[in-house]
Amino acid sequence: MIFDSSIMALIMVSAIVSIMLIFAAAFAIHIIRFWDIQSGSEQQLILERRTYLISTLLIWALSFEFLSLLLFIYNAESMSGQFVGAMCATGVLNVNPWGWPTLFLKVAMFFFAAAWLALNYLDNRGYDYPLIRYKYGLLLIAVPMAITEFILQWFHFSEMDPNLITSCCGTLFSAEADGVAAEISAIAPGKAMPALVVSSVLVLFSALWVALKGRNGWLLSLSGLAAFCVSLISIVSFISLYIYEHPHHHCPFCILKQGHDYMGYFLYIPLFLAAALSLSAGVISPWRSIPSLTASVSKMVPRLSWLSLLLFMQFFLTAAWSVWRSNLTMLEVWW
Amino acid sequence: MISFLRKHKYLIDYTLSTLVRNKGKSFALLTVYTLIIFMLASVMLFTHALRKEAVSMLENSPEIIVQRLQAGRNALVPEEYLQKIGKLRGVTQKSGRLWGYYYDPAVKANYTVMTAGQASLPITEIIIGAGIARTRGLSLGDYLTLRSQSGEAYSFKVSKLLDRKSELVTTDLLLMSPLAFRRLFDIPEGFYSDLVLSVRNPREVRKVAEKLVLLLPDSRPILREEILRTYDSVFSWRQGVIFVLLMGSILAFVIFAWDKASGLSAEERREIGILKAVGWETSDVMRMKFWEGAIISLVAFLLGYLAAYAHVFFASAGLFESVLKGWAVLYPRFQLTPIVDGLQLATLFFFTVLPYILATIIPVWRTSITDPDAVMR
Amino acid sequence: MLIQLTDVRKVFNQGKANEFCAIQGITTHFEANQVSCLKGASGSGKTTLMSLIGCLSRPTSGRIQLGDRVISGLPERFLTEVRRHTFGFIFQRFNLIPGLSVLENIMLPAYPQGLPYKNLKARADRLLDQFALANKSDNMVEWLSGGESQRVAICRALINEPQILIADEPTANLDSQLSAEFMGLIDELRKAGKSVLISSHDPAVFESNVIDRLVELHDGCVVSEDV
Hints:
The complex is a heterotrimer of chains A (335), B (377) and C (227). Chain B has 377 residues and is of the alpha+beta class.
């Protein structure tokens, strides 16, 4: 399986990102030890110039990571033909125990990256780089994450056995089966729907609050992450049903397919971006008390919050619209 | 926000003028870059299109083929088997097939001989594929003589030529009536080459196959989905292997790009120094260099991909015909159906643009940190 | 007081065998709306001092104050920010970028700020008019004469509307008549409210009556200065 070109590309990207991060981490350790903004020594000048390299490395690493997340799902989708029982990405991820953790780690890396870049952007606006040690310390966490991701992904692809019979979305996301996925699917839309409404109201209000007040970003981060989780659960629990117009098809990946108007992209892209922005707002807002950052924080936090608000709204409206236009009526089943 | 966009517009403007000013260098890089993308994209488009072709060819074939094994070799299937299968649940249709190969010493080629299905063909007439017609110089109404198993010669009149569009599959095909087939190959009445079963519901196919093996212990059911799966993995494996072979050229390209990006002439170095001295920041220079890379990559990607598209779909992959296709004598002349696939595009991007970016990050950074006071020294 | 330097030192190749102290603890100041001149033989540290004042590089130690802002501890990113809005530079060898037109060369320093093209063009045209270059605006800079190149360099230095103009050996590549013309232009700029800092070892410059204040350097130290 390793010889598949998309798989080779994915493995290559993971390896490259890991190497880039290890590189950046080595510089980061150097900076944490020797950074002294007051000094005009050549050592300090060299360190300052390296920060540009590290920022660039990270921006690229993180954009590659994001692209590889897309490619990973795409690839899983297209490989479904090669496994007995697999009909979409779910089946391929189920081929061995490494598939799902790889996906989750990629998502985690995406959010970490977004938060780190926001922090980096903010710090670069303070003339004394007040967060420099903190942010490069944080960077060191990304290294084990990237390496773990590389290893998990390697196992996932190298242990793929085309003769294995895997279970696909039909069995995994069916309310009768066991396991987390099944439990999520089994969550009655009667519960998931109100939860989605409540979390959406919460997140929209907290985004509005933070956008207007320019402070308490953590509020938005918390409600944003909650809304993100509830939204994912809702997609599995009931939104997908309306898109498929099928009362038992809970798969979160098939909505990415052409047959369903690529609805998945319109749901996932705003959702992921909105969650990343809300997280960034929370990461940034505590630094208002640092004098050199005050101005930048009070400019950035409202901006991030407005953007996050807009994207969340787009997600909720798209979700509501896809339920509304659907021919599926579940009234008598659920209520 | 607007000033941010405007700033990037200025940077792009400047980058374009720089690229034009360093024509020789940009052109060399662009050529090599385009060539790499062209090669990889050709391999990709070609194998992918072949795979799709194979898959679409199988789409109308029956879900299950049943062969009989005798001492581990294919044997003729007696007609009673059809009765033995009887009424298996889920099977909507079942029938026996007659088919085989005929070696024609005149052109040293194998024909695939099948029986014409519904269209009842007179015993003296045949339908032939375009490849046979070409090599034997046959046209409608001509006669083709075949020697039977027992040595007698039979003459058949060509009553129809098969459609050119499906030439990839039908180039060596020869269709005749069942009676003529049995006579030619000496196959007794009541026996078939294999049996085919249609199953409506794809989920029942495996169950049916299991029952078949129980019912007819000497049979071997072959599932369509299995063939499809094999095709899928064989083609992606093939593509992967070619990519590994091309890895060397990608590496060479990376080194070339690295060299081009770091080997700045004195003039270019001075230019960066001037920019920094008059008020450009390190990150502005890096952004400008980013656009340089982006523009070159975009142009190379478009040119390379379009060239590959034309090469594969209009010129029938002329450059690797002889390597990748297997028909020796009855060589099919065919046009692949153009397919552009998102996953393949993304993979191609990762194989070409990503190495390029990687090769240029450090040289670009080194250029960008030129001392702003360098021009004063 | 516009610029105040306190015990400023600049060391190159720190800690290596070829360590070299270009500026050895200079304390001086420059006033607003004056033409000041740094005088000294080549190698006396004029250029290094100019680049320190102009935020092109950072002192190894010491303190530089611009107005009421200390700039000596700023990282490069913010130094550039300050430089862009405060200083305009005229270099010894003009340092125009060949292959670009006069207009493009002049607008170059303003690109990273993302101003609307119309405003930027209007500003450049005004400068071109002022320095009698209006008919050369689309010419390539490599076709210009020495005096014209010099004037293009001045326009470029003024495009971001800086408060202070820094000129490093501006007359080194000009004949005596052009040098006198240049000093005339400098005088006009001062009258328009700019402060100018010139480094030179050309008598045509430091003996000119345009100069308000003369500071003489030798081996990285101030040897004499007008009060």
